[in-house]
Amino acid sequence: MWSRRIVLGTLSLLLVLLVFQDGPARDGQRRELATGPRPPRGLPQPAVVGRQEWRADEGLVREGPQYTGAAKAVFIHHTGNPNDYDCADAPELIRAVQADHVEKDGWDDIGYNFLVDRCGTIYEGRAGGIGRSVLGAHTKGFNADTVGIAAIGTFGEGTEVPKPMMDALVELTAWKLRPGVDPLATVELVSSNAESRFDEGQVARLNVISGHRDSYETRCPGDVLYGLLPELRERVARLRASAPGHAANSRLRPYF
To answer: Which residues pair with residue 207 across a beta bridge?
Structure first.
């Protein structure tokens, strides 16, 4: 009898622990408990060059990473660099972006979560873990529950977005968006900063895949790249739909 009670008590304790660990985080716990994307089953993580490999200046980092919820939306940016760079020089360009964000803008690290060069190489941006939901500093007012991806270059009128870069943007965006999100849909996000296009506390309806200019007064990510966002959405949707186990009616499937 006693052994049976012990077994039942142990099982009850395990169930309590499982419920606690898997349950929704309280507001105060949310950032510590965020574990990152859970893409459609069968969608692999793309290759990403880590911070150690591009030799991020960790001495510039002023604070440790913070975490947010899995991405409801992705914001596409550009860095403003000339487009004719040698891809071997991309790490140097990224280090310069990091220095600007910290020393000129006063941020605690590079703001973008990821960067992509014209050869299609993906780089880890802000520290905190490639597979985790790192709170970025890329889109004023809308950093929570989003990912910021910067294309290295300038994409104004008369320029082109290289195919390898576009392919990498598709692959990375498809992987980072949380499951159940329709890349062709819109999402409601609450502005946290009145310096954005929306007052603080205002609910903004934005595309799941948006350009920086959609939420902030800027030309970023450039007219040409911005004009390719409809194609990016379509391609991301097709890639996610092709993953084994992905429901075709993901627009209707809630996320828990």
So the answer is: 186
